[in-house]
Amino acid sequence: MPLVPLPAILVEPLVRQALLEDLGRAGDITTDAIAPADCLVRCVMAARQDGVAAGLGLAAHAFRLIDPAIRFEPRLADGAAVAPGTALAIIEGPARGVLTAERTALNFVCRLSGIASATARLSASVAHTKARIVCTRKTTPLLRAIEKYAVRAGGGANHRFGLDDAALIKDNHVAIAGSVAEAIRRVRAHVGHLVKIEVEVDSLAQLDEALAERADAILLDNMSLDDLRRGVAIIGGRAISEASGRVTPETAAAIAETGVDLISVGWLTHSAPILDVGLDATA
Predict the structure, then answer these.
(1) Residue of 200, 213, 242, 261 with catalytic role
(2) Catalytic residue among 78, 147, 221, 261
(3) Among 61, 128, 129, 276, which has the highest number of CB atoms less than 10 A from its own CB?
(4) If pLDDT is split at 50, 70 and 90, which confidence band does 283 have?
(5) Which helix (H) or strand (E) element contains residue 132?
(6) What InterPro entries does the entry give (predicted)?
(7) Which position among 42, 71, 103, 144 bears the catalytic label?
(8) Where are the domains of the chain?
(9) Above 90 in pLDDT, residue 84?
(10) Whole-model pTM?
(11) Of residues 258, 257, 236, 255, the one with CA closest to residue 246
């Protein structure tokens, strides 16, 4: 599926707030002191390591919000593979505006490109299977929409976006309800007919309960490879199967080969390393 850009009305407030955080009470006092008001500059935003680009739209917003006279020319699209030296964008315009917006723009691009790059590596490791890499709700507060977008840019897919778009019954819910079956019955009586119900199970006995109550998806949590294979066989296509827990680039392929439909990975959005991207003035 083509990567659909995020709506401007969704990302612009995030970029505006990030700029305000950096501008503080007096603006960019360093640049204002050094760059004359009529000074123009041309800069190249380029990758400094291999990866996948993401966040260029947010960078464009950063420059335009600081000075509409700045021209931001992307040289590739989000989701494109990059190597050291690959130009992501050309930025031209008043030097004061370009240098003032530089760090905020790069923060977004480095962060989102890091998520996209990590997702792409994991997705490549399971490409020989039917499994898809999906993210979780373990996101930076207030940045969930753009971090989940970065996962899509890297070829992954999104799990639920919040508490209200799907029901996910976890161990604490089961403890309160008394059983997996009772938890599912309570949720089904509470939500609308379009809401999917997923259940996290940590044993094959709980899996039988979830299937008996016709759960839409079953999360096989922190199971061994043998138990994952047995779980997928028991499910037999009656529900979406998902694996989670201890997923790394080294273990993802073996987990995918058990036959699960999805592999959910929290660290993609809470601790993926950034992609090193720089912005340098040209002669």
Answers:
(1) 200
(2) 221
(3) 61
(4) low
(5) strand 132-134
(6) Aldolase_TIM, NadC, NadC/ModD, Nicotinate_pribotase-like_C, Quinolinate_PRibosylTase_N_sf, Quinolinate_PRibosylTrfase_C, Quinolinate_PRibosylTrfase_N
(7) 103
(8) 8-115+273-281, 124-270
(9) yes
(10) 0.96
(11) 255
